[in-house]
Design a protein that fits this description.
binds flavin-adenine dinucleotide; 501 residues; 8-stranded mixed sheet
Length: 501
């Protein structure tokens, strides 16, 4: 709006329910009580056209005269991702993956799903198209844990990832295409953007939840006339005048998420603690153009996983992992324990991961897509485990002594809707950014339809917002196209060769 629509920042207000801005890209803490993040992000420059387009214009907070894009690229030149040990087997051996492990049947089925039209795939699941043996291949172990897919997820979305990330076939075992931020994404991406927005005069209201929208409907036209919200718990209303626009977050993958502690598992939360979902449901009722939230928020058992952040006060664990994986610090990727009932993965990012992190303190992040399963070493579902029990489970997989993680602080985080955008969907379940008939209202989120692009990415959220803004404000500029890597014969050939290794 500011950059391409010439809108003065002071004319823009952001209403945010929580106490900090940045949504899923949170991060905070200290060495005494422990650091925590809901998620750690892998980015890439082969695509992410809109996201880097944005960050080329946002100044760095730490490197004067440089943009966030420039400082991030310089960092990645110094510390390129090159994972040596992506998988760990039941013998605690780092598996050196050289083959995707496909049979001819796997190749044929993969080709079939990648070439199918989305209307044919409809609301089918990935495992409707691929045989059980495919889900035992090294390719599936790595691909599913990199992108957070499960066999039960949408075949349409899986197909889109195959096309969007086809260049990663040839380097899938090293994650060499991954770009990382200097610190966690809250410090490296959210704070610089927030500082820039503040400087532009944008009103940033935190602890401010939007609970309802007044609107008028005349024939097919839909127009928002007022926003109802609670500011620090106090009800308030702001009028939407002629010429104003409203952009609404319809659902969030981190809605209803909750943190635990070293002694307690995270409390269980549901839809009732998510105003965002409820607001979308209310608006979509009886309006086909506004999508179908029920396709995404009806089955927590299918959409949840649990992440955890560990703060360590000695080098033992990081040294052990460097020796074990062969990866110098900060250059490895996700390490997945293939035989873990929880399918646990951890990633040791470059340190410090937080700007205020003292020397001698290290922080790493991990996640498990099956928190409802009993652990291999702790006889409980992960969702019922404290941080201390999660560390014991991880130590069991790594066969390490308790001293290696002595004084560690592990903060678990349950996210009931984290893969809800991957649940099988039909055309129309995700609304267009500006639904037909809307005069001043748009949707922005991972639950909005953008052809070809893939939803579990920062890129998707930026692309949706850019599309919504251009359309509502009538900005006559091109949105960067989704780069068609899958149209390149060289890339296709490399992927084909890799699939026969
Ligand atoms: C664990 C995890 C790992 C991830 N890994 C990667 C990765 O490796 N690579 C990658 O590219 N992407 C990754 N992502 C995805 C990426 O982080 C998200 O796509 C992106 O951050 C979503 O941004 P968003 O602004 O659309 O929504 P969100 O981050 O969901 O933010 C929405 C915000 O809107 C607020 N809100 C909602 N409703 C209301 C209301 N009614 N009133 C006021 N406020 C409201 C919420 O409080 C929230 O702060 C990951 C995400 C998670 C959670």
């Amino acid at each position: 709006m500011i950059r391409d629509g010439n809108l003065p920042g002071k004319n823009i207000t952001i209403f945010e329910e929580t106490s900090i801005l940045g949504g899923s890209m949170d991060g905070g803490g200290n060495p005494e009580t422990g650091y925590s993040l809901r998620g750690g992000r892998m980015l890439t420059t082969d695509n992410y056209e809109c996201m880097w387009g944005l960050y080329k214009t946002i100044p760095s907070l730490h490197n004067a005269g440089k943009s966030v894009f420039e400082e991030t690229m310089e960092f990645n030149e110094k510390f390129p991702s090159h994972s040596i040990a992506r998988l760990v087997d039941s013998q605690r051996a780092a598996v050196h993956v050289t083959s995707m492990g496909f049979t001819m049947q796997d190749r044929i089925e993969l080709l079939r799903i990648s070439q199918a039209h989305e209307s044919t795939l409809a609301d089918s699941r990935i495992d409707d198209w691929l045989s059980p043996c495919f889900f035992k291949t090294p390719f599936w172990h790595i691909w599913s844990n990199t992108f957070a897919f499960q066999a039960r997820h949408s075949a349409i979305e899986f197909r889109r990832y195959l096309h969007r990330f086809i260049m990663d076939f040839a380097r899938f075992q090293t994650l060499a295409g991954v770009k990382r931020t200097i610190f966690n994404q809250y410090d490296s991406l959210v704070l610089p953007l927030q500082a820039w927005l503040k400087e532009q005069g944008v009103h940033l209201l935190t602890n401010c939840v939007v609970i309802d929208l007044d609107h008028t409907t005349q024939s097919e036209d839909f127009r928002v006339t007022a926003i109802h919200y609670k500011n620090q718990g106090k009800a308030a209303k702001t009028l939407v005048n002629d010429g104003d626009h409203v952009f609404m977050q319809n659902g969030s993958t981190s809605a209803a998420s909750a943190f635990g502690s070293m002694t307690n598992a995270p409390p269980k939360q549901t839809m009732d603690s998510s105003v965002g979902w409820m607001l979308w449901e209310k608006l979509a009722a009886g309006r086909k153009n506004f999508g179908n939230p029920g396709a995404f928020n009806s089955c927590i058992a299918q959409s949840s996983w649990e992440s955890f952040t560990v703060t360590l006060k000695n080098h033992g664990f990081f040294d052990m992992m460097s020796t074990f994986t062969g990866n110098p610090r900060g250059k490895g990727g996700l390490v997945t324990f293939m035989d873990s009932n929880w399918m646990m993965s951890i990633v040791l990012a470059h340190q410090p991961h937080f700007p205020n992190q003292p020397d001698g303190v290290q922080v790493f992040w991990g996640y498990s897509p099956f928190p409802d399963r009993v652990g291999n070493f702790i006889p409980k579902p992960m969702s019922e485990c404290s941080g201390e029990e999660i560390i014991r489970e991880l130590s069991g997989h790594l066969r390490i002594d308790p001293e290696t993680t002595e004084s560690a602080i592990c903060i678990p985080c349950m996210m009931p809707y984290v893969t809800s955008m991957f649940l099988p969907r039909l055309p129309g379940d995700r609304p267009a950014p500006v639904p037909a008939g809307s005069k001043n209202f748009a949707f922005i989120s991972q639950f909005v339809e953008i052809p070809e692009d893939v939803a579990f990415t920062v890129e998707y959220s930026v692309r949706v917002a850019q599309t919504a803004v251009y359309e509502l404000l009538g900005i006559d500029l091109d949105i960067p196209p989704v780069i068609p890597d899958d149209k390149s014969n060289v890339t296709k050939l490399e992927a084909l060769i890799q699939s026969f290794k």
